[in-house]
Amino acid sequence: MRLRHKPWAKEKIEQHSQYVVANPENFKGKWHEAFEKDQPLHIEVGTGKGQFITGMAKANPDINYIGIELYVSVIVAALDRLIEADLPNLKLLQVNAADLDKYFTKNDVDRVYLNFSDPWPKARHEKRRLTYKDFLKRYEDILVDGGEIHFKTDNQGLFEYSLMSFSAYGLLLKYVSLDFHKSEYEGNIMTEYEQKFSEQGKRIYRCEVKYQN
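RESULT FIELD:
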């Protein structure tokens, strides 16, 4: 993703703290207080411009959602979507995924979504992949027992790596599709990348994995 500097973006985020949580560490262990209703919480790590997480929040009002994005110039686009939709069950966090334990604790989260994450194809960058074992431990530390990861990508190499990483960690593979858009799965919400790649005829890979107690 090409990042364009947007000098006005930080100020805009600060002006909309009802959508982008300014001090997320204050809600650690009590995220239900950030929302109108106490409901299951799903998070997307690397939410990009917010098409997926906004669509999910619209489709599932009985679930609370948090979109997590590191880059100010990207999350501001997700903010625009949220301002327009004005969804009470969706918040955004502009934080680093490597620091999830600063903002969430055990049982805070019911499900983690990883959509079209950076594949970091070079071997020396393995630890940066969001399906690397250290990240899997971070997710486990904030999920409920039996919590799930739902993962989508267009990158075959990353998908194969992730399946091996999930298995090595001891996760249960609940669902695996090597050509997701030709599957019978219903109710799919597409990300911006997914829509673009699908229109180009690229194959989409998807899996659902569960932590075992």
